Structures are given as C-alpha cells and as structure tokens.
Hints:
Strand content: 15-25%
Number of strands: 10
Order of helices and strands: EEHEHEHEHHHHHEHEHEHHHEE
Pfam families: Thiolase_C (PF02803), Thiolase_N (PF00108)
Shape: globular
EC number: 2.3.1.16
InterPro entries: Thiolase (IPR002155), Thiolase-like (IPR016039), Thiolase_C (IPR020617), Thiolase_CS (IPR020613), Thiolase_N (IPR020616)
Helix content: 25-40%
Domain Thiolase C-terminal: 272-393
Protein name: Acetyl-CoA C-acyltransferase
Distance between the termini: 20 Å
Largest sheet: 10 strands, mixed
Amino acid sequence: MAEYHGRDAVIVGAVRTPIGKGKPGGALHGILPADLLAHSLRELVQRTGIDPIQVDDVIAGAVTQVGDQAFNIGRNALLGAGFPESVPGTTIDRQCGSSQQAISFAAQGVVAGAYDVVIAAGVESMSRVPMGASLLPGSSPFGESMTERYPEGLVPQGISAELIAARWCFSRTELDEFSANSHEKAARAAKDGLFDDELAPVAGLTADEIIRPGTSVATLAALNPAFYDEAMKVRFPQIKWEITAGNSSPLSDGSAAVLITSSEFAKTMGLRPLARIHTSTVVGSDPLYMLTGVIPATEKVLRRAGMTLSDIDLFEVNEAFAPVVLAWAKETGADLAKTNVHGGAIAIGHPLGASGARLMTTLVHALRHSRKRFGLQTMCEGGGMANATIIERLD
Length: 395
C-alpha cells in the first residue's frame, strides 16, 4: 500500500445541492446553472470557514458548455458566489467524469505545490441545457480521420448499455432488481438523515427530487425499452432491448463542490481534513461499448495504490445504466453489498458535469457515517473513458 512522503492532498469540505428533475417543471429548472454552481461554492466556503481569497483556483466540470452553461461557467459561478475577483476559475469536460477529473487535477496541483487551496466542482442543468445542445446542425465533432477509423460508426450511450447487457447476459429482471434496490437504498438513506450533512438546500428543495420510495421490480417491468432502433436492431441482432427509463439514470439538475488542500495547510488554517486523496487515475476504453472503462480503471487505480479489492470498504460506481455497475462487479469481483450503499444515480440522479463531485461528496460522508477507512469511486464516460479515485477517511 502506498506510503505518503511530503505533500499530500486532503478534502476538508464537500457539499452538493439536492438533485432536481432535469426537465421543465423540475424544482431547479428556474435556476440558471451559474447560480446553481455558485450556491454550492458559497455553501462550501461558509461551512469550512475558509476565506475565499485563499482559493488559488476553481476547477469546474460541465459537459454541455453552450447556452446557459457557456463562457467558462466555473469563473462566472465563483464571481456570482462573491469570491474576490483575484480568484481564477476554469471549466473542463471529460464527459460524465468531468468533476471527478476536476478533483484529480486539483489534487495533483496541491501535491505538486502549484496550489495551497483549490476547489473542484461541477454543475449541469439538463432541464435548461439538454444533452446534445452543443451539436450544431451539420456539425461533425468526430472529424474525418476518426470516422475512417470507425467506418461502421459509434453509437449512443443507450445502445452501448444494451450491448453491455447482451455481452454479460444480464436479464431484464436483473437490471430492474438492481434499479429498484438503488431507489430503496437512497430512500432509506434520505429517511435516516444520511444525506443531511452533504446537502445544501436551494430554491426550497431540501431533498433529492428523483428518489422514488416503494419502486418495485413489477413497476419497472412495465416500462418499454427506451432506445429501440430498427437500424441498430439489424446491426446488433444480439441486443435484447432491456434498457428502459427505469434502469437508466434520469435527466437531472444539480451542482457539487469539494475543497482540497494539503494536510500541512489544513493544520495551519485550523481546517479538519475529512479524507486524503490516496490515488487517482484515468483510462481510455472501447468507444463502442463506451461505458466499460470502469473495469480497467478500477484495476489500474488499485494497482497504482498497491491495494486489492479487499482493502476497499465502500465503492461508488456511477449508475449511468444498471448493466454498467453489474458488469463492473462481475469482472472485478467487487462486492455489490459495499457498492453505492446509499443508492446511486438511477435513484438520486446524474447531472452530468456535477456527478463526479456529487459521488465524491456522498462517498466522503458515507465513510464518515460508517467509520470505514477506504473508498473507491469510478465513473464511465462518453467516448470510452473512466476515472477512478481512492480516498482514505482521516477524521
């Protein structure tokens, strides 16, 4: 197991908004994304007590950087939060893992000595800025060279999820059982107050809006396939068309923010470290299957850390679709009983650019509540990538 010598990176605060339904009529639809992120930034500073003038940078994740989320939302949000004009901010896109990557960049900056204090954050308002909104008519984001490399064409994530379900032979019942369990765990955690410390209520929303207590396999079984496509049926005859709105993560609005510094600086400022960022990594994977990168990412981060699965007490694996987590568990051998113990994105929601920081916030607090030591977070990402991060509880 890796030993620490010299400078490290620790998390001293982690907050998130409740997650709202990502459609008009959702509780957070009326809030502009920059204001939604500003709320988490403001709350983070207030809870930790740090003077924002000490923040060396704000690194924010956002996926669809157009319209209300354009023009460097990280900088706009910190100014909206009242931070001094001297604080810089930037916005990054590693698809669904954007704010987990922001955490990695922030930690690397602290360890390297480029930062003393940095905030990693993320936001997505899918009700105001729909997925795909940045693709102009006739645009070609892949370019001719990539198109030549994949002449049959890549596929939407929903089709990738169908391919994973078919390749690992998951039945519709297995997918729906996993999804119903996610709602059950999330509803129980909310009822028991296990999200209270991480939530920063906003616009009258005090709890995650999407969780559906009492969700059953029978209810989910009545839903129709969400991604059925005649052309894809011909191209991929192995697909059984099992992915529905019920076993997929829903469109969501939300933001989250994590304050990162060094142990030395935290002690100087009287800040209480919650967790150390032990090891982080990122991998590329097959862009057709796209969502399986969590498997090699988990293997790589454990190898880099000098750890095994048995060393990890809790896992947070983004529930983009139910077969992603099930395939990850089957291939790595990880214990699903230790995974997403307070529910996952299928129940809580998946506001794309915010999800990495949201998962980290939930993981930090879950380790604290359970008095466990090590947590591992991993997320699949569009285009075939995945981040993985191991943290160690310190309090």
